[in-house]
Design goal:
Structural class: mainly alpha
Number of helices: 4
Distance between the termini: 23 Å
Order of helices and strands: HHHH
Helix content: 55-70%
Shape: rod-shaped
Number of strands: 0
Strand content: under 5%
Amino acid sequence: MDNQATGNITYFSVLKICYRLYGVYLFATGFLDILSYGAYFLSLEAYLQLLVMAKIEDLYSAVLTLLSGYLMVLSTSGKEKLPQARAVHY
């Protein structure tokens, strides 16, 4: 019998939940980092200051963190097919 049909919690279902929570964490962290660097994009002078401080790598890191969190959540949110009942013919 399938684990979904019996309602048993398996190691893989717990792992999937943890993976999804970590993806949400990465997404939120990347989003907040991008917001914190958003002040530098209000003017050209502030943007050049960001480049001089060599903080542009941190901005790239924030964008990659946001994207990786989004992809992790997206990859674990797919619907799984439930087993179909078979018709019994007499």
